[in-house]
Amino acid sequence: MKWFTASTLNELRRQYKMFLVKYHPDNNPGMDTTKDMQEINAEYDVLLNQFAENQSSDVSAEKESELKKVLNEVIKIKADILIELVGTWIWISGNTYPVRGMLSEIGFKWAHKKRMWYWGESGHKCTAPLAMEDIRAKYGSTVYRSQYKESIGTRETLKSQIKTK
Q1: What CA–CA distance (Å, rounded) separates 102 from 98?
Q2: N- to C-terminal Cα distance for the chain?
Q3: What is the DSSP letter of 87?
Q4: Which residues make Cβ contacts (< 8 Å) with residue 22, sequence separation at least 6?
Q5: Which end of the chain has the lower number of beta carbons within 10 A, N or C?
Q6: pTM (2 decimals)?
Q7: Taking residues 38-43, what's their average pLDDT?
Q8: What is the Rg, in whole angstroms, of the alpha carbon atoms belonging to the chain?
């Protein structure tokens, strides 16, 4: 495989998300990254099918495909927003007011108490809402700033960068 070195499904997702931010044609004006993105998508699909066959997972290939589609749409949004991937959920914060219509069209919902947009499906209804810190601790998270071309790391990395400024 040319692009991926993942040994688990979660690593595969994390690497795909990094490549998506780095090589998506909308994030690289003046450069032709279409061929690279096509190679990445093809390799991702092959590896995803291998993981689906070899490992039991709570995420089906269909849900993974939908997650990929939504990520492609979110990456295109040109705004000062943070895109946070927590498990199989996408959370968006920052200056979302100007793009709230686009987020809603893509299928995001507004979480009033968390003051964030979210996308994802849950198989059960949560009786006691969790704080974002608890959700991040349970599932892990990766944060991307949409105005940059590549990942800025985990939430902890982002916090340390903010503290040093």
Answers
A1: 9
A2: 39
A3: T
A4: 149, 150, 151
A5: C
A6: 0.57
A7: 92
A8: 16
